[in-house]
Automatic annotation (TrEMBL):
This is Integrase catalytic domain-containing protein. Residues 22-189 form the Integrase catalytic domain. It comes from the Bacteria. SUPFAM superfamilies: Ribonuclease H-like (SSF53098). It comes from Nonomuraea antimicrobica.
Length: 203
C-alpha cells in the first residue's frame, strides 16, 4: 500500500519548517513519523510525536496496522500529555511530517485544524525534510528495538516503548540541548519564563 497518496481533493500543506529544526520554546513545533518493528505476531507500527525545542517525545502509539488511527493516537497522546502537565498547546503550533497518506488524510488534517495546529508536510521521498524525526527513530531502534529483540507481541512492544520513552524524556542526556534530559530542559525554560503574576507571588 502506498503511503504518499493524499485523499482525493485534499490539498497538501506546505513545508513550514524548511529543514530548520530549531524552536524558541516548547510547543512551537512538533515533528512526527512512524516506524515498524518485526515481531512474531507480525509487523508492529510505532508512531511518535517529538517537540523540536526539547527533543521530548510528547506522544506515541503502537498498532498492528498503519492506518490514520495510528498517527492520530500519537497526536492525541501529545495533546493530552501537554494539557495534563499544565502546558496546553496554543494556536500556531506547527505539526511537521512526511507526505505519508496518514498525515495528508482528511481525517488527520481536520483533527489538526480542530486543535488549532498548523500542518507542515515535507517533500515526497526526501528524508532530509524530516531529519530530526528520522534521528529520533534511529535512537529508538538502536537503543531499544535491536538490542532487546526478538519481539513477540504488540503488548510487549508497547510496554517496552512506554518504559523507553519515560527514560528518554526524564533521564537520557542529549547533546543538542546542552547534555540535559528533555524534561529538565523544558523545566529550565519555564522557570525562566514565568508570568509576571507568578513571579510576584513568589517574591
Amino acid at each position: 500500500m502506498r503511503t504518499t497518496t493524499p485523499d482525493p481533493g485534499n490539498e497538501r500543506a506546505a513545508d513550514r519548517l524548511q529543514r530548520d529544526f530549531t524552536a524558541q520554546r516548547p510547543n512551537a513545533a512538533w515533528v512526527a513519523d512512524f516506524t515498524h518493528v518485526a515481531a512474531w505476531c507480525g509487523v508492529v507500527y510505532v508512531a511518535f510525536v517529538v517537540d523540536v525545542y526539547s527533543r521530548a517525545i510528547v506522544g506515541w502509539a503502537a498498532s498492528l496496522t498503519k492506518q490514520t488511527g495510528l498517527v492520530l493516537d500519537a497526536l492525541d497522546m501529545a495533546l493530552w500529555r501537554r494539557e495534563r502537565s499544565g502546558r496546553p498547546v496554543e494556536p500556531g503550533l506547527i505539526h511537521h511530517s512526511d507526505a505519508g497518506s496518514q498525515y495528508t488524510s482528511f481525517r488527520f488534517t481536520t483533527h489538526l485544524v480542530a486543535a488549532g495546529i498548523d500542518a507542515s508536510i515535507g517533500t515526497v521521498g526526501d528524508a532530509l525534510d524530516n531529519v530530526l524525526m528520522e534521528s529520533q527513530i534511529g535512537l529508538y531502534k538502536t537503543e531499544l528495538i535491536k538490542p532487546q529483540g526478538p519481539w513477540r507481541s504488540l503488548a510487549e512492544v508497547e510496554l517496552a516503548t512506554a518504559e523507553w520513552v519515560a527514560w528518554f524524556n526524564s533521564t537520557r542526556l542529549h547533546s543538542a540541548i546542552g547534555h540535559l534530559p528533555p524534561e529538565e530542559f523544558e523545566a529550565i525554560y519555564y522557570a525562566q519564563h514565568q508570568p509576571n503574576d507568578v513571579l510576584a507571588i513568589n517574591r
